[in-house]
Amino acid sequence: MDTRDTSTYNFMNLFKDNGTLIEEAASGIKYNTKMIKKQALSKDAAERFVNNLTVSAGNNIINDDVFDYAAKKAKDNQAVAYNRKDKSIIYRISVNAAGVNDVDGDLGAVTLTDYIPEDFELDKIGGNSDYLIYKGKAATSIAKADATVLAEGSPLSLGTDKLTFTKDETNNKLIFKFAKMDETYVILLKLRIKPAKVDSYLNKRVNIVNKAEITPEKKWIDEDSGNQKKEVKIADTQDVDLNEEFIWKFYDENVAKYAEKGFIKWSIVYRPYKTYTNGKKVSFQDSLSNNIMIRRQKNSSELVFHGDNYRIFEGSVDDNGKFIPTREIKENLSEIFKYEDTGRKFIINLPNGNSVYKITYITDFSSPINSGEGVRNTVALFEDLTKKDN
User: Fold this and answer.
1) Three-state DSSP class for residue 45
2) What are the angstrom distances between the C-alpha of 135 and each of 95, 138, 152?
3) Long-range pairs for 249-255 at CB < 8 Å and ≥24 separation?
């Protein structure tokens, strides 16, 4: 049973002595459990907070990053939480924003289970810790459904009489068992892609779902099921966009106009998916269909460097995948762009495999294009002479 939010009703009936109903009234209120909220830090906040783990007025990044104080509701960092540099995500779990203070332990032990996504593993955080836990306070009043907790002070070091932590690697679970729920907490976890699985995400964009679930030891009695005792489970999830695209290709105008003009202008955007060591040669090989050709000297493999025929820009890519140029590279274009007639290979040698580039070039139709006829232009990444699957 998930009781994340539920409604409670109170009825009152007025009867005569003979049992005749005179009047009845009912009132209901929505009850928000506010026991758990799963979020993720933005990658920028994740990189900054590790420099100072103590929360203060001047260092409030782990709260400011996940809560909108003006709107009084949680922020969702789904699009900006994944860190390409170390293939990681820092998750944030708010626990007990309701302020349950079970001093006598009537609920029994309370277990928080975090389900690690497939292909991920727990990484160290804040130095050499499996997790960080802070005391906190609810971001909103009990009347609000939002279950965000604002962290306070320095990370806690709780003894096993208060909290036990278990890594269940076989079932990909992290288990936090509180002896009793009498405080409000924030927990931070760092998960990363397992090294052996990194290449399986190469040039892909997928959604990663992380679930956390809280369960008290004490069970509730279900009168509708013959007074059976059942667990109370309250869960929340956080989606994160994992974007490992390192190369994407597109043309810049409507296809219907190309036949009229007789050419197509292509664009390739590249951003490194890893850090290359010095001397590693990174290049593209572009395979062209027989009905298009790049601009080169007649009966020669020498390219014609004029106008927009071949251009390369260095820059960056924002969180929405938009390329932002900082400079155009105009030197040594004949070493960057090459053509091999055998196999009709158009080769682009990147000046630096660790930089972000946008490359544009033009292809002409080698013969008239019929209605419905396709044009194929595929690109592959090579590290030295090894092709990377994409």
Assistant:
1) helix
2) 10, 10, 6
3) 249/377, 249/379, 252/360
Distance (Å, whole) CA 202 – CA 205: 9
Q: Which of 165, 135, 163 is nearest to 149 (CA)?
A: 135
Q: Kindly report the number of other CB atoms within 10 A of residue 10's CB atom.
A: 9
Please state, in angstroms and rounded to a whole number, the distance separating the CA atoms of residues 194 and 358. Answer: 30
The whole-angstrom separation of Cα 1 and Cα 5 is 11
* Residue 287: pLDDT band with limits 50, 70, 90: confident
Predicted pLDDT of residue 148: 98
Q: How many CA atoms lie within 13 A of 197 on its CB side?
A: 10
Structure tokens that stand for 150 in this block:
């604002």
Is the Cβ–Cβ distance between 53 and 90 less than 8 Å? no
What pLDDT was estimated at residue 215? 93
Give whole-number Cα distances, 247 to 122, 281, 288, 336, 344, in Å: 29, 16, 17, 17, 21
- Do residues 177 and 187 lie in contact, with contact meaning Cβ atoms separated by under 8 Å? no
Distance CA(147)–CA(151), nearest Å, equals 13
What is the spatial distance between Cα 50 and Cα 39, in angstroms, rounded to a whole number?
A: 17
**What's the token pair of residue 120?**
């991920």
Per mean pLDDT, which range of 62-66, 122-126, 244-248 is the poorest?
244-248
As a residue count, the chain comes to 390
d(Cα 363, Cα 266) in Å, to the nearest integer? Answer: 8
Residue 168 has pLDDT above 70, yes or no: yes
Residues above pLDDT 70, as percent of the chain: 84
Q: Quickly list DSSP for 213-266.
A: EEEESS-EEEGGGTTEEE---EEEEEEEEEE---EEEEESS-HHHHHHHTEEEE
Q: Is there a contact between 361 and 305 (Cβ–Cβ < 8 Å)?
A: no
Tell me what pLDDT residue 8 has.
Answer: 46
pTM to 2 decimals? Answer: 0.80
How many Cβ atoms from other residues are within 10 Å of residue 384's Cβ?
A: 9
